[in-house]
Amino acid sequence: MAGSLQARKRRTLSSPCVEEVHVSTRTVIPSSLNFQAVSSDIEVYAKEVLDSLISDNIPPTPHNYSLYFDRLLEEKSEYLRKQILSVLELEESNDAESTILLEHTLKQGFSSIKNILNVTANLYKNMSLMTKILEKRKKELKDNPEPRESLVILEALESDVSKLNTIVKSQSSQMRVIYDNTASIVKNVENETIFDNQFGVYNKRYLLTKLEQEMDLVKEFKHKSSLIMLELSNELKASMKNEKAVTLMTRTIARLLLKTSRRSDIVAYYGHGAFVMLLKHTDIDSARKASERLCDLVSNSNFFLEDKEIQLKISIGITSVDTDSSVEEIILSAMDGMELAYKNENKDYVVSLRT
Length: 355
Hints:
Layout: H1 35-55, H2 62-73, H3 78-91, H4 95-143, H5 147-192, E1 195-196, E2 201-202, H6 204-221, E3 226-232, H7 234-239, H8 243-260, E4 266-271, E5 274-279, H9 284-299, E6 302-305, E7 308-311, E8 314-320, H10 327-343, E9 349-351
Parallel strand pairs: 8-9
Antiparallel strand pairs: 1-2, 3-5, 3-8, 4-5, 6-7
Helix pairs in contact: 1-2, 4-5, 8-9
């Protein structure tokens, strides 16, 4: 599947840009570590954790298992802890660090908003002061109709207006600076988000980061993982003239993806109506079965539009997570499979020819 990517005409789906992939720092595992031996040690330890759960009459749920796994590890030798932690580091992401950074950015945003409110309050006070001054000078002019006295009052009014104008200009300039800083903070927050608000799944940025992380894991541990790309069939979209209806059907697909996915799967919105599922520890045959189940689930789901029942249909492209390829090539491979599924009326899913 590796090879140079030639520019070619595609549908409206955009290819992932290199800038969009947030490259995390890769963990370097010492070459002296024998992964076969480490795997054996982890297997023995895993059984010990499970036995402890059963012995303590604790349900062996993933949450409880994780708690016992961490707790019992503290009692093991330093050598074993280092071995296991070295392996676990490959599976860890920088999600916690990203959350801390995001919270810090949000606090900056709240601080900027507070500053905007303070400046706005001061502007309001000055405008109120200006109104009071005008009322005062108006009364003075009414009480002193003589031209000479009126001229003195007007000169005083001009001085008052000039002073307030200088203050308001300064505050307006300050407001502009704070506004620009706040806008920059909001944009940074948007760039750090991991969910797509429209469809309630992960976004493209998070998908690309997780795909790169999974490629590292596959390279180290030699397991199989797959990736599928899907969207509403061309036939169904062509028959829909109502753009809002297409959006509603796409949201239905998103809900079904979440319903059928496993806890370990990454469901993300790639853009332009297409979704991607990263199926960890799943070979191509299993990805085919998962795609078939998904197609059946979608086709058996009812969607009503103006009292008319519409049968949903999707097209799926399947590819493997190949460590000899780039993130972009894997995505394009899944896209190729999806386009082949579009062209074949008898198939809802197709394994990419690149796989």
